[in-house]
Write a structure and sequence with these properties.
Layout lengths: L5 H7 L3 H10 L3 E9 L5 E9 L1 H7 L11 H4 L8 H11 L3 E11 L3 E14 L2 E8 L1 H36 L6 H29 L8 E4 H11 L1 H6 L3 E4 L4 E4 L1 H17 L7 E8 L3 E8 L27 H11 L4 E5 L5 E8 L8
Parallel strand pairs: 7-9
Antiparallel strand pairs: 1-2, 1-5, 3-4, 4-5, 6-8, 9-10, 10-12, 11-12
Helix pairs in contact: 6-7, 7-11, 8-10, 10-11
Length: about 375
């Protein structure tokens, strides 16, 4: 078979046709771009190389006829959407990056390319390998469900607030007996718990929607702010927190604050009587930053999908079962993943990753 990409064939030699045949059979979109440098050696663009049939189907472009085309000329929208910068970073660092991207741009001002992709860029010889799969339909259904949940929660919140106001007024009325006062208290407690659940659903429904507002976020500063917010809770249980060097990442500041606050607050909520100890750290991994929040608490329940909606980690401890699901939505919206493991000696460690769009760790 003919690959129609001289540099692809030069890199792989006699294996080029076999590798291309394997790539051609895959459902994921796979393509290669090659760096273009000027006379000073500066990288100024990328040249379209080998692409598989799935790439053509996803983009609706006859990419096989575009070998040798300059990426910024045929699809200038890659610059404002940030994809071109990601290609540059991987070309310079030789470290893979993965993220969910939204395309809404033109190819040669003729073909409209749109969709939501989980996109990975990794080194491929002197060039870059682009791998993507389309999640547009999944995201559309998720958005419909979140919008429905947000509308329902918003509509429920007003009558719940009204119920609490009525309970407060009833509680101040003279002549109530002990039994009536207890009924009013139970009414107010129930309305308060329901309001908290509604607020958690609203938070989950909006989590990860601020991707357009991502900036450089100093995670060390964010954790310091979270610890100040949780100071009374930490002091109440005589807790201790160790924070290692954390990086500056390209992310949503409010999203990172939600993730760290949920994970750290849970570590102090689900403790087993020992003095709570939490350690927050980060490592520069192969595909991005790897964060950890380790505790010495009650540990993880067996066979429990704790990152799903309404799944609670600690039996008798209060909670909506939405906080960890919210963390998952935020992390995945940033192109990362989140999981938990038992800590040797007791407790649990929550890990999450973020793509490498960051500076060196702060000291």
């Amino acid at each position: 078979m003919t690959v129609r990409d001289e540099r692809f064939e030069a890199l792989l030699g006699t294996a080029a046709a076999l590798v291309a045949a394997v790539f051609d059979a895959l459902p994921d979109a796979i393509g290669v771009v090659w760096p273009i440098v000027d006379e000073t050696g500066a990288l100024v663009d990328f040249e379209v190389g080998y692409t598989n049939p799935s790439s053509e189907r996803m983009m609706g472009v006859r990419l096989g006829d575009e070998a040798g085309a300059r990426l910024r000329e045929v699809m200038p929208g890659v610059v404002p959407m940030g994809l071109y910068d990601r290609l540059l970073r991987v070309a310079e660092s030789r470290q893979a990056e993965s993220a969910e991207i939204t395309l809404d741009t033109m190819w040669r001002d003729v073909i409209h390319v749109r969709g939501v992709w989980v996109h990975t860029v990794l080194p491929f010889g002197s060039g870059l390998l682009s791998v993507a799969f389309d999640v547009s339909e999944e995201r559309r259904r998720e958005n419909e469900l979140r919008n429905s949940a947000a509308v329902a929660a918003h509509d429920l919140r007003e009558p719940l607030v009204g119920l609490r106001i009525m309970a407060a007024l009833l509680g101040r009325r003279a002549g109530l007996g002990v039994e009536e006062q207890e009924m009013v208290r139970l009414l107010d407690d129930g309305a308060q718990r329901a309001t908290g659940l509604v607020d958690s659903i609203l938070e989950y429904a909006t989590a990860g929607d601020d991707g357009a507002r991502r900036t450089e976020v100093d995670c060390g500063e964010v954790v310091s702010e979270v610890l100040a917010t949780l100071a009374s809770q930490i002091e109440r249980v005589d807790g201790r927190v160790e924070v290692g060097a954390l990086p500056t990442v390209q992310a949503s500041r409010s999203g990172m604050s939600r993730v760290f606050q949920n994970l750290i607050a849970n570590a102090f909520k689900f403790h087993d009587g020992d003095t709570p100890h939490v350690a927050v750290s980060a490592n520069d991994g192969e595909a991005g930053w790897a964060f950890s929040v380790r505790d010495n608490g009650i540990g993880l329940p067996k066979d429990s999908a704790i990152f799903e909606m309404f799944t609670r980690a600690g039996g008798e401890h209060e909670g909506s079962g939405i906080g960890l699901a919210t963390c998952r939505r935020i992390v995945e919206a940033h192109g990362g993943r989140i999981w938990a493991e038992p800590t040797p000696g007791g407790g649990s460690t929550f890990h999450f990753t973020l793509p490498r769009a960051a500076r060196c760790p702060t000291s």
